[in-house]
Design a protein that fits this description.
The complex is a heterodimer of chains A (581) and B (189). In chain A, 48% of the residues lie in helices and 17% in strands. Chain A has 581 residues and is of the alpha+beta class. Chain A has an eight-stranded antiparallel beta sheet. In chain A, helix 2 (16-23) crosses helix 4 (43-66), helix 7 (129-141) runs antiparallel to helix 9 (207-216) and helix 16 packs antiparallel against helix 18 (527-543). Chain B has 189 residues and is mainly α. Chain B starts with 11 loop residues before the first strand and ends with a helix. The longest helix of chain B has 31 residues, at 21-51. The chains are: A alpha+beta (581), B mainly alpha (189).
């Protein structure tokens, strides 16, 4: 064996994972120094380090090249942010003041718009909503002049509370044909809303149909304001608030935005009453072009050209189906979505480890939302839990801290419950006479802590079992995975706690009688009860709470319980066994 | 597509309660816009990976920053802004995926007005582009890919663990596996 071979045997090469941790600066300083020293002297490991670095670099380059730019760019964000700012300011006083605030805000906005108009364009005529829409309609009708058989192409983006979809529309004006392409169920929902309000799903930004809707409702407030698009183009915004009682499926507030440079409609916002609250649809033109029919792919329209319909028929509005008779987009979705929202709230709490006995509850409100309410031990903990829950749809958070609670008189009286009487001499001391007090004390602290933690995990499993093991429970596939994950993690944590407890109590085996005088009821003992009894026995033996009459007998029972639990937890998780009888 | 270089994220976002409501709101609006400019591309890339839909990724990216503004406006103190935004973006992404699943389950079979299925040609082109671009990265599992994306955006293991609600050793394992697969893929290429 030569010197090189001996040397190679003496060193331990770094594992790939260790090299990655080294490169990422995630090793402890001691291990980092050791790895650096090793790399200095080890060519194979240095080579692997370089290979890993190169692979990462190549993957990163591929990755960056694979991303498309955001389709609409980021110009829209300031507008959305500003709108949120305005809504926040307007809505803060509460729902009862909302309408008057909106009217006040509108008056201010109208005054500001009038001032802007005067400032930018000098004195201009003050247009009514009807005049704006008619001028837009007129401009749209002359838009295709000079083009033989014009086809208007429009790409629109529809947004509703976090969901977004695109619609592409080709309109053959001469032959009255329209082809619509949409890939998202939101577009069907949006189409149903338009249809139910006498608007045209094939022309969502039609000024004529908007005017038709405007004439059909009883207006409470109407305003024409000046505004600007993100690219600086000047727009005029027709805003209408319906005075009619809010009915399901009906628009009660709408904004129609027209670019004044060419009097072209570019956006629309509709607020619609839905059975689970208000839904706001924001539709915006992303792209539009005008081309001759012959330059369009014939496959777009697909069907042969039919004769132009009779003018009387063409101008007559289509028969509008009431919303109730339209195909239901989500026949069972709402209940399922609420169920899903509740589960996501639980899962988020699970991830924040807030499901192990912290006083936090998840409730369903009458408005069809989920409320997470409770008490956190500190502001940092409250923020941690709130962060875990952030971004979950339909979930409201109401968390307070102990510090905030301590201001209330009720909290002071509750604190007395925290005082616990502990025996002067722990029962376990008599079982381990050769152990010194310090060692016993450490053992007792760990045992009580592990037993409490095990019971908390068991409670979490019981709550899961009660909530999600019913035979008629229905979940979405991802929800099933979330339940499985929560079950698995609680199960593993419980197994870990119990095995630690087994190691702690192992030295007591010699002190325990080989046969317990207590009846053997292991076959009848459900896991949850076994864990609860284990925790009680640990408290009795290690904290004297309460002092057991016969510590040796209690020790035997504790050892039996722990042994049963270990056998039982080594099997695959069975959540149903955690349910109440 | 790269975020602003050299700009520093604020350590913490909290509403200035001493100023007037309008002034503090305006300042916060400006700060959130600055944070948006710094983090929008990383968050967009992360959501694009998650959702495979640029329009939805763009929309949710903006939504995450709007939530940041709303939360701070309502008095929340947001520390580690980057982690917070990624975490919220992740939750929004999960939320959307779940909604998609719900929609898939409950959507009617046929729509009278809209053609909901992409054309065969579009599907083919998309599939081809995707396979060309991500031959190596497509070998990663979803969790490995998400860990890799977050690491590529500069998040530390602890932050990744917090965003994805995983334990740090799990993040180490996932990234280790991801790099192994990537190394194999690159050598084969």
């Amino acid at each position: 064996m030569n010197y090189r071979e001996t040397w190679l045997r003496q060193i331990r090469h770094l594992a790939s994972e260790e090299i990655l941790l080294f490169l990422d600066g995630e090793l402890s300083s001691r291990r980092h120094r050791a790895a650096a020293r090793h790399l200095e002297g080890c060519w194979p490991c240095r080579l692997r380090r370089d290979q890993i670095q190169n692979s990462i670099s190549e993957a990163l380059e591929t990755r960056l090249a694979s991303f498309d730019s955001p389709p609409a760019g980021w110009d829209e964000f300031p507008r959305r942010l500003h709108r949120v700012t305005t809504q926040e300011v307007c809505e803060r006083p509460g729902p009862s003041l909302r309408r008057s605030t909106v009217i006040r805000f509108s008056a201010v906005a109208a005054a500001a718009a009038a001032f802007c108009v005067w400032l930018i364009r000098g004195p201009v005529e003050q247009l009514s909503a009807k005049e704006v829409l008619q001028r837009t309609e007129q401009s749209e009708s002359t838009r295709a002049v000079g083009i033989a058989s014009p086809v208007v192409y429009q790409k629109l983006r529809v947004r509703r509370q976090g969901a977004s979809a695109e619609i592409e529309i080709w309109r053959d004006r001469e032959n009255g044909r329209t082809h619509t392409r949409a890939k998202h169920p939101l577009t069907a929902e949006f189409a149903a809303v338009l249809t139910a309000n006498s608007l045209d799903p094939e022309q969502p930004l039609s000024p004529a149909r908007f005017e038709h809707w405007l004439n059909a409702i009883e207006n409470d407030e109407q305003a024409v304001n000046m505004s600007r698009l993100d690219d600086g183009s000047e727009t005029v915004v027709v805003r209408t608030l319906s005075a009619e009682p809010h009915r399901e499926g009906k628009i009660f507030e709408a904004q129609f935005v027209v670019r004044t440079a060419d009097w072209h409609p570019v956006a629309e916002t509709l607020r619609v009453q839905h059975r689970d609250g208000v839904r706001e649809y924001d539709v915006r033109e992303v792209e539009t072009t005008l081309a001759a029919l012959e330059s369009i792919d014939p496959a777009i329209f697909g069907t042969p050209i039919v004769p132009e319909p009779h003018p009387a028929l063409a101008s007559q509005p289509r028969e509008i189906a009431p919303l109730a008779s339209l195909p239901e987009v989500k026949p069972t979705g709402d209940a399922l979505v609420l169920e899903d929202a509740e589960l996501r709230a639980w899962f988020a709490l699970h991830q924040a480890k807030a499901c192990l006995g912290e006083p936090i509850e998840v409730l369903r409100s009458v408005e069809g939302r989920i409320l997470v309410r409770g008490l956190a031990e500190s502001a940092a903990r409250r923020d941690e839990i709130a962060t875990a829950l952030s971004g979950l749809g339909l979930v409201d958070i109401e968390l307070t801290t102990l510090q905030e609670m301590s201001a209330s008189p009720a909290a002071a009286s509750d604190s007395a419950d925290a005082i616990r009487v502990v025996a002067a001499k722990l029962p376990v001391e008599s079982l381990l006479p050769e152990w010194d007090k310090k060692r016993i004390s450490q053992m007792a602290d760990t045992a009580v802590s592990e037993a409490d933690a095990a019971l908390a995990e068991a409670w979490a499993l019981r709550r899961l079992a009660e909530r999600y093991t019913s035979p008629d429970a229905q979940f979405l596939p991802l929800d099933g995975m979330a339940i499985e994950t929560m079950q698995r993690e609680h199960w593993q944590a419980l197994a870990s706690r119990v095995s630690k407890l087994a190691a702690i109590v192992a030295p007591m085996r010699e002190a325990a009688p080989t046969k317990s005088t207590e009846p053997q009821d292991s076959s009848e003992m459900r896991p949850f009860l076994a864990i609860r009894q284990t925790q009680e026995l640990v408290h009795a033996l290690f904290a004297g709470d309460p002092v057991p009459p016969q510590p040796a007998e209690a020790t035997t029972r504790l050892l039996q319980r722990v042994s049963q639990l270990i056998d039982w937890l080594n099997q695959p998780p069975r959540l149903t066994e955690f349910r109440y009888q | 597509m790269r975020s602003a270089i050299g700009a520093a994220l604020p350590d913490e976002l909290v509403l200035d309660r001493e100023s007037s409501s309008t002034a503090s709101c305006e300042r916060m609006e400006q700060t959130v816009t600055e944070v948006f400019v710094m983090l929008r591309d990383p968050v967009y890339r992360y959501l694009s990976t998650m959702l495979h839909n640029p329009a939805e990724a763009e929309d949710l990216t903006q939504e995450a920053f709007l939530r940041l503004f709303t939360d701070v406006r309502r008095g929340r103190r947001v520390g580690n802004v980057r982690r917070w935004v990624f975490r919220v973006a992740h939750n929004l992404g999960i939320d959307l995926i779940r909604r998609r699943q719900a929609d898939d389950r409950t959507a009617p079979v046929q729509y009278s007005v809209y053609d909901l299925s992409p054309s065969a040609e579009e599907s083919l082109i998309e599939k081809e582009n995707s396979s060309m671009r991500n031959a190596v990265l497509d070998r990663l599992s979803v969790q490995e890919r998400l860990c890799f994306e977050l690491r590529a955006e500069g998040l530390r293991y602890r932050e990744i663990a917090e965003v994805l609600a995983l334990r740090i050793p799990t993040v180490q394992t996932l990234l280790g596996r991801a790099v192994k697969k990537i190394s194999g893929g690159c050598h084969e290429l």
